[in-house]
Amino acid sequence: MFKIQCSGIVRDDGVAKTILNMARRLRIAILTSGRFHVCDLARELSRIGHDVRFHSIVPPWRTRKFGLPDHCNRWMLPRVAPWLAFARTSAGKPWQHWAEEKYLEALDRAGSRTVEPCDVFIGMSGMSQRSAATAKRKFGAKIWIERGSRHILSQKAILAKLPGADQVPDFAVKRELADYEQADTISVLSRHCQQSFEDYGTPRSKLFRNPLGVDLSMFSPTPAPPAEPPTVVMTGAWSLRKGCDVLTAAWRQLSGVKLLHVGRVGDCPLPNEVGFEHVDKVEQSKLPSYYAQGHVFALASREEGLATVQPQALASGLRLVCSDRTGGADLGEFIGDPNAVRVVPTDDPNALASALRAALNDARSDIGLRDRLGAARENLTWAAYGRRYDAGLRARIGP
Hints:
2 domains, 7-stranded parallel β-sheet
């Protein structure tokens, strides 16, 4: 268990349970477009006993597959369907960003009209300006804003230095900053994200850090694969944002190593050398079979909050090599093995190649079932994530 502090997480057995037993049930509204990690958050807060309302365009028959009770779902697609269709058909068009902005405005309006009495309003950043203001004005709700990456101005500055990368539009900056301003608490996923907010003037007391969980029923220890060829796995979009150009440069320094990518292809070209294998995006339930083929998981992201594929890979038994802007360092706090997670500076292919080489060498000693998490396994569950979030709510709202 964990005790939540304003600036992060420290180990403290029993405190969260004590707070929970003394606390009252909260009415919680959550607003998002897609599922993201807040669907898992909604499920866990509901299981703890809170009255949760999940406002999104995801239908109940979809959220049901992820364990969210139907009575929690507030399906908003019928209210925003024309704007969503317009935004999706505008991809790649000159008016794409304008269409995206109008869709988010429609989603936010729908949220403001459908939000029910609540003690806490949790909104995804950039989507919640009007609906959060309504929840605060009408019900006195405390406003929590979920930010999945670094501060928007930090994200924009990083991507602006990458010619050819998908850029942050101006409307997104405006909406994000408005959400940060009205938030009572901004929830982030990792230390590097927390630091980016502090760099732009957000007081540490306003920030709440809570690393994501993983479905351990889906991602479990896998047998060590054959030693040859040594295999590095990366899942997720092949993009500049995820540092795939850096990963490619590092991999080219490793003789005889296979690089397996699973996911869609974004704004970064795929390597065409022998030893690289690409598999198009698959359902999450199929990822374990690809993790089972790898010795090491690699992620070189430039500004990702905490990529969920990292705890998936660790839970599957792979060693992790990542940049210092992936949230991987935060996951290392949960694991007793100091060599399970290696963190390198962002945009440094030589350091990444060296860390991959060391991790692949360590992987040669893996025999049988690879249980990388051991006794710390429970700390990476979604249930543990939900308990930490609940304790954070209690600490800031009071019993």
